[in-house]
């Protein structure tokens, strides 16, 4: 009788989760773990990610929407109540405030009786990509890199099983990166961080291999799963060469390319959303089929992410997709099935060659930080994204159900659209505000002020900031107080938008030409070139859509005013007045549209701009869209409206209507 095949151990299976409150998220985590999930992936809300307490002006509408609010140690305790952290592998998607969240996690674990050396997990902590794609940065690049460096040095010496940095190419692809750009920009980030740790002198030369060995990556996998398989093999080859040749790492285990994956959300469609299931499966195959380049952890989006917040059942479906592949198929019983493939080897070599050339280009500029500050990397991503969108609109890049095979039967999955997604708790913000205010009222203010003063003092030196941050956590400070203290030392930062100089459409076809003529004619009738203000109210940093609208609006003949992310409604209104605009476009993907859009609307009315139409775009359920239009919003656009030139045409119509030109 032949020997029984022993399959490989499967990857860590996670779902990215967190919403409303620490208590509700805790219940969701325990339920998911009971269903066979083998690790936790914590989603924090935008105020937590950007260093604001729930009662800050910029937090309005954002609390508990895209993750869980964790402003202080009490909420961290509640988040992990009855979950033994000593036994858990926890991934935390947190970047600018990563040091603060790790400090709270360590203290909460110590209170459970788990020493720091027992803790396993990952803090994302890739600040470079925040300036390029996701927008939850707080401080300038150099200061942010210092915080990352301090965290890495601290964990290597004190929490040796922790991954202090998860270099995150996922969001680069979401922002439009080609596979070559994704490879090159991620590796350039790794070089910047490793050079910083080395130069800081905080880690002994003999221990530097441990720094390299604890760095992991978080990647994206698109639907072109053969290309994605090759990309992952190219990642491994590049990392092997960089760590061996640039940093002299001799231990093969420390050079191993370790990565987790969230498969692509950019390609998920609102139209025929049931097609997203097969997209997710193909994307999962791209990071699991090749044994030598297989992900160590996988989390899948839900089929209905383009519609709104997935329900627990939707997350369960995504978990079951992983479990069927791992436990019902024979995938884990074989060695690498691509070894020796001429096709795969040629594509990998092509990707590696292109990535090396791009890495050299970034290094010649002075490295990743310099390439952020000059706007080079951001503009490259905006250009790539614009090219991709143009190909979809032209029909060159087929998206089933969107620009091809659009005839469809009614979907039972979306027969009740409002029931096909989960609504966040409407009381979450009020509850979080009451909670943080009660927490502050019970603080020992003298102890908090002393701890924060230590943070400020040590931030002005080269002292590792982790110990001062731990002291602030134990004293009872909040994330807003900690971040406010560091803002006072490091300052704040507004990253380049990448929009200037980018051409969205190289050659204007008949459709865009017609819109240009309408824009020009309408401008002449109103006495000047039409001015389009693109605004991002609140803390939502996903600016890809806003950037593409800004680029196409400029190509259509508008003068575009785009000031980037993270603006209050009053700042947007002030810009509309100062710039004498003809239309205001608001982009919100965080679910805060029902709070922030009316605030902008009210401000414009009070400023007397009654003939300036407001249009809104984002992840907006149909019922909310109807309510916005009933309240006077001129138009609401969602992911199903992929034709940006069509949107421009509609915008001109709304300007004409508002000024009685028709």
Main features:
single chain; alpha/beta; 5-stranded parallel sheet; 26 helices; 662 residues
What does this structure look like?
With 662 residues, the protein is an alpha/beta fold. The strands form three sheets. It has a five-stranded parallel sheet. The chain has a five-stranded parallel sheet with strand order 2-3-4-5-6, covered by helices on one side. A five-stranded parallel sheet has the order 12-11-13-14-15, sandwiched between helices. It is globular and about 75 Å long. The model has no long low-confidence stretch (mean pLDDT 90). The chain contains 26 helices and 15 strands.
Q: Which strand order does the major sheet show?
A: 1-10-9-8-7
Structural class: alpha/beta
Mean pLDDT: 90
Q: Give the tally of β-strands.
A: 15
Instruction: Using the alpha-carbon principal axes, give the shape.
Output: globular
């Amino acid at each position: 009788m032949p020997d029984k095949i022993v399959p490989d151990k499967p990857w860590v299976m996670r779902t990215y989760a967190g919403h409303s409150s620490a208590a509700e998220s805790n219940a969701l985590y325990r339920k998911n773990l009971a269903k066979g999930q083998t690790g936790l992936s914590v989603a924090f809300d935008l105020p937590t990610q950007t260093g604001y307490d729930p009662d800050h002006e910029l937090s309005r509408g954002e609390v508990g929407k895209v993750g869980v609010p964790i402003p202080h140690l009490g909420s961290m305790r509640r988040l992990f109540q009855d979950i033994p952290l000593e036994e858990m592998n926890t991934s935390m998607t947190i970047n600018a405030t990563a040091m603060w969240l790790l400090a709270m996690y360590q203290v909460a674990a110590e209170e459970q009786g788990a020493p720091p050396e027992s803790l396993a997990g990952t803090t994302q902590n890739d600040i470079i990509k925040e300036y390029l794609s996701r927008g939850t940065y707080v401080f300038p690049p150099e200061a942010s890199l210092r915080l990352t460096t301090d965290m890495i040095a601290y964990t290597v010496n004190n929490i040796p099983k922790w991954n202090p940095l998860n270099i995150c190419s996922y969001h680069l692809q979401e922002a439009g990166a080609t596979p070559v750009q994704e490879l090159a920009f991620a590796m350039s980030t790794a070089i910047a961080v490793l050079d910083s740790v080395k130069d800081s002198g905080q880690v002994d030369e003999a221990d530097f291999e441990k720094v390299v060995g604890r760095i992991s990556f978080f990647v994206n996998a698109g639907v072109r799963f053969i290309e994605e398989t090759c990309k992952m093999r190219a990642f491994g080859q590049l990392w092997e060469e960089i760590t061996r040749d640039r940093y002299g790492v001799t231990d093969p285990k420390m050079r191993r390319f370790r990565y987790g994956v969230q498969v692509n959300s950019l390609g998920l469609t609102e139209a025929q959303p049931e097609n997203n299931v097969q997209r997710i499966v193909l994307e999962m195959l791209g990071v699991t089929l090749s044994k030598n380049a297989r992900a160590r952890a996988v989390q899948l989006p839900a089929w209905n992410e383009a519609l709104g917040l997935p329900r627990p059942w939707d997350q369960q479906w995504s978990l079951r997709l992983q479990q069927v592949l791992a436990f019902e198929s024979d995938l884990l019983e074989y060695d690498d099935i691509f070894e020796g493939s001429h096709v795969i080897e040629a594509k990998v070599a092509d990707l590696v060659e292109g990535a090396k050339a791009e890495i050299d280009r970034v290094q010649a500029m002075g490295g990743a930080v310099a390439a952020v500050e000059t706007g080079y990397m951001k503009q490259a991503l905006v250009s790539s994204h614009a090219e991709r969108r143009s190909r979809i609109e032209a029909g060159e890049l087929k998206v089933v159900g969107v620009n091809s095979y659009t005839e469809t039967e009614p979907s039972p999955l979306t027969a009740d659209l409002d029931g096909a997604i989960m609504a966040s708790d409407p009381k979450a913000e009020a509850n979080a505000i009451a909670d943080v205010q009660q927490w502050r009222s019970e603080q020992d203010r003298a102890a908090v002020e002393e701890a924060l003063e230590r943070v400020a003092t040590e931030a002005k030196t080269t002292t590792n900031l982790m110990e001062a941050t731990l002291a602030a956590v134990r004293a009872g400070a909040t994330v807003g107080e900690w971040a406010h203290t560091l803002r006072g030392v490091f300052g704040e930062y507004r990253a380049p938008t990448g929009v200037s100089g980018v051409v969205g459409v190289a050659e204007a076809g008949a459709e865009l030409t017609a819109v240009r003529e309408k824009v020009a004619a309408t401008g002449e009738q109103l006495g000047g070139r039409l001015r389009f203000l693109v605004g991002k109210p609140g803390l939502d940093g996903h600016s890809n859509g806003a950037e593409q609208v800004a680029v196409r609006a400029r190509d259509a003949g508008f003068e575009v005013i785009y000031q980037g992310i993270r603006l209050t409604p009053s700042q947007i209104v002030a810009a509309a007045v100062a710039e004498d605009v003809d239309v205001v476009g608001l982009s919100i993907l965080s679910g805060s549209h029902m709070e922030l859009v009316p605030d902008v609307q009210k401000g414009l009315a009070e400023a007397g701009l009654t003939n300036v139409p407001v249009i809104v775009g984002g992840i907006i359920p149909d019922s909310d869209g109807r309510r916005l239009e009933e309240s006077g919003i001129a138009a609401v656009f969602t992911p199903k409206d992929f034709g940006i030139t069509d949107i421009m045409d509609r915008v001109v119509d709304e300007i004409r209507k508002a000024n009685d030109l028709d």
